[in-house]
Amino acid sequence: MDVLTLLQSPQSYLWAVLLGVVLHLTLFRYGEWDSSAPSLISAFFTTQLLLLGFLTAYTPSWTAVLLAVLHVSALGMCVLVGTFTSILIYRGFFHRLSRFPGPFWARLSTIYPTSLSVRSKLHLYEEVQALHRQYGDFVRLGPMELSIADPRAIQAVNSAQTPCTKGPWYNGMRPRVALQNSRDKQEHSHRRKVWDRGFGAKSLRDYEPRVVSYTTGLMNAIEAQKDTPLNVTDWFNFYSFDVMGDLAFGKSFDMVKNGVKHYFMNSLKTNMTMAGYFKHVVWVAPIFRSIPILNFEHKRFWKFVNSQVDERMKMKPDKPDVFSYLLEEYEKQDPKTAQSLLNLQADAYLIVVAGSDTTAATLTTLFFHLATEPHLLIKLREHVDPLFESDEVDAGALSKSKHLDAFINETLRLHPPVPSGVQRLTPPEGMMIGDTFVPGNTIVYVPLYTVFRDERNFKRPEEFLPERWTTNPELTVDASVFVPFSSVMVAAQFELSPKWLSKALGFDVVGARPVRIGTGQIGEVYRIELEYGAKTRAGPASVVAKMASLDADCKAFGLSSGLYEREVRFYQEVAPLMTTGPIPTVYRVERDEESGEFVILMSDNAGRVGSDISGATLEEASLAMSELGRLHGLILNHVSVEKHGWMRRTRPWAPTENMVEYWKRFKERYGDRIKPEHREIGQKFIDSFEAYHAALDASSAPTGLVHGDYRLDNILFGDSGGLPLTLVDWQTCYWGPVLHDPSYFLGLAVTPEFRREHGEGLLKIYHEALSASSPYPISIHECKAGVRMHSFTGMRQAITAASLVERTTRGDDLFLTMFERSCEHVVDTKALEVLPPPVPVPHLEPKELDEEMHPFSDHPLHNESWYFDVVDIDQQVGVWVRLGVIPNQSGSWYHALICGPHIPTVGVIDFEAPHPAKDLVVHGGEYTATHEAEVPLQKYRTTVKGKGVSFDDPAAILQGGAGRPVDVQMDLLFETDGQPYQWRRATRYEIPCKVTGTFSWDDHSFTFTKARGQRDHSWGPRDWWAADWVWTAFHLDDGTHSHLVHAKARGGDYPHLGVGYVQKEGEPLVEMTDVKAAAEMAANGLGVSTTITMAPLPLTFYVKPVGHAPLCLMAKDGRVAKFPRSWATITTNDGRKGVGWLEWNINE
């Protein structure tokens, strides 16, 4: 029988059915076919046309052609019948998921969950919750889909360490691939690093003013409609889309302003609604897009998005937004591909969608609860109203409100952004989720709406109870399941995968479930519950991992302060020597030197933490002192500072000038809550701070490794592993007088009344335990003397901590308690009798070698600057010069400018100057500048010759004006006219000077013979865009010189910094402990006036700017700082007059 005869025979229908079965069993059972739906349809009809052509080639009549058409159609239908019959039988009875319970129809087709979405009007999550209540934790939701409500699935499926990948739903935007849609983990990781820059702590602080402005607009719009019904869902969408449009496209959609829905929002809502309906039938989307009449709106939508991206790429916003970082990465690509542009467009779309939709939905549901449960509104207002007492809302303080955070958390718990869960695909080999094996290539969802309303995880789960996140944590059974955004992040550098843990522990770990514990700000701590293979030996049920903070600012502090290094090195080098000490067992320590990331894996000594405010019981205090004595004995026997040089810290406490500032803030913060007698003790301690610590340094008291913060918050009592007490948090350890720790404990961890009754007995307990193991005798009298001398340490800690950590009600109570107890400890031990009297502390002076260029670090903003300022009041002119070498940027900065009320502002402005060599000669494109210390610290000459620019209006410089070209020449000699002054808090020095020389341009020339001046030199990382400040250097007619600075870091509730000096020949230089400057600026950005107060001198400077020479400072990442600089006249509150320069660094 030939092929033609066979195709025309009745048996061909049977063969067609069998072909369909074979296609399913050999082809369609494997791989992903959702995206190929249009291709499959095309292939099907193309095959039929080819077959029809083959058959009709041999037919003599139109009747035969018609019969051939019917025959081919029937064959096609038979293939489809065979394919779908095989699919349905296989899915219904033989599929690898057949053992999982669920509705029968869910086994056969994804049309089943789609029908639930349609029936419930997109409330599929409620249908899924009902299915879990009927069938249990594992429900077969579709032929190849499982919904899993087992709490252990959160970590197994959604964590960064999961072996699962994203499912086929994420192909829905192709050919565009946004970050969210990237299914390749390596690609996603690379792109995520770029996004992390846009959403880092610093970037978020920079966005804050814009968000506040839109929030104000929303509040005004709502206020304007207060007497009419308001659709808050619309307005919250207007608000969130406006904010995210600004951060994505560099401009708002103006919906809050106009009160009208924008096309983008309407179209996006339509697209997302369709995506919700077709979430489980993703093959529908490619079919729709292949049909022109159905694809019109889709094309129109992306045409709009692309146009917005094109516009944004052409513009340079005044301030960086999220898109700035994505665009910067795109611009680095060489060559740029069509795919990379498509991905950039998709990421811009994602910025708007990810931020706006979730924000609007959360705000809507939160306000629903506040409106329907008035007691919640009253409770929330009790906590947030105090933050709105001034006209200007402190967004930083608001963002740190734990009670507001609790309301948001509870909203997200009851109404998670992805209630049915995100789509994930199990690895080909399958995986264990809890106690259940899930086959490979299975689509899985973790329905957060169901998990968050499960009594196994949250008590009273259907109620809105924000106190479960604050005062009533017992309402939360398992906080680890609360991951509202379907992602569990543990560590940036070290992934705590079962493979890594197996290597670290020496056991076969097959499952790991990390839960964040503790509330530390500097580091992240996780308890990791472990699962072991059935055929292997089991290790500990859980371990604890400590790592660097995920917050960039906290991490930077931990690195710069050495806290991370000390703790890592303690557990690496010292803990192994303390095998019988009250220290956790250390399984593994890893540290990446380049990034600063680290992980310390240790035993989980799940003990009970005491209360520093309530104070220790006699049993706790006795055990703590006994274990401390035993620990110190072990340290004196086994630990040597010669072998561990990192322990030796020249000064493990804040510098004196810092403590003066901290004490001032402490008094201001707590006011009348500080008893007068305690305030007097505190003042005496601060006055003698330098002398006190000099006496400690000179003491012959026994030394060893000091914990540094031995109090109840860092002690765990009781443990099933056998240790009665475990001491943690070794970040503050240092080599010093060991009696610091027992004195610190007795002063802070017990009440004064308790200490007076039991203190002597507790010290004897410590002494006995110490003597039992110490390599040399330490008498009880030495212990008493040491406790007496160190009774001030708790006071020092309370004052310091109150200034450096986030302010909370409990924190205030704790710090006051610590201070009061320490003061009483000082009184009881008569420690004031051994407190050395205050001694004057000489100011620091620079060394001659400091005049030269210093070695530079690899910090991108490392900067070494030389400044020179001149004022000639008789000629009514001033000059300032700056060389700023920025070795890790493309160019350095050089500026030399003259200004005055009767002349234009003239000089050289170059932000891309060639980096000079050590001779500090700058060979600019059209100028040459020199800098030379002819006699170090005594005479310095600086010159420039070449082309410059002139501005009739100096404010034009701030606006980016070009100026007109001029020829410039300068030769100035600075001769020291006072005491050189080295800063204590930074690598920088200042020198008052007399100045002679010339400055000329074109046919104008000025000669200086008796001008006043200042020069300074600074080196180290300098981020101009991280702080605002006022810098000044003034010279009074009576020969007094001053240098005063008021600075404040941007973002957060950071205290201001006030430093400087006032000096006069024949009198001691007086260092300032505080400086405050209040400035008035004109609309054009120039200074109008500034008032400066200082301490300890009761002086006030009234400053009137006269000549202006400003700059506009642009960071590479788009940040902008306006830098108006002016020479000025001043009048003091005691009638003296003078001149000098001042600058305002103002970040936008």
UniProtKB/TrEMBL annotation:
Keyword Cytoplasm: no
Annotated keywords: Iron, Membrane, Metal-binding, Monooxygenase, Oxidoreductase, Transmembrane, Transmembrane helix
Cofactors required: heme
Recorded GO MF terms: heme binding; iron ion binding; monooxygenase activity; oxidoreductase activity, acting on paired donors, with incorporation or reduction of molecular oxygen
Domain CHK kinase-like: start-end pairs: 599-776
Transmembrane segment boundaries: 12-28, 40-58, 64-90
Stored SMART domains: CHK
PANTHER family in the record: CYTOCHROME P450, P450, PUTATIVE (EUROFUNG)-RELATED
Family membership noted in the UniProt record: Belongs to the cytochrome P450 family.
Protein name (database record): CHK kinase-like domain-containing protein
Organism from which the protein derives: Fonsecaea nubica
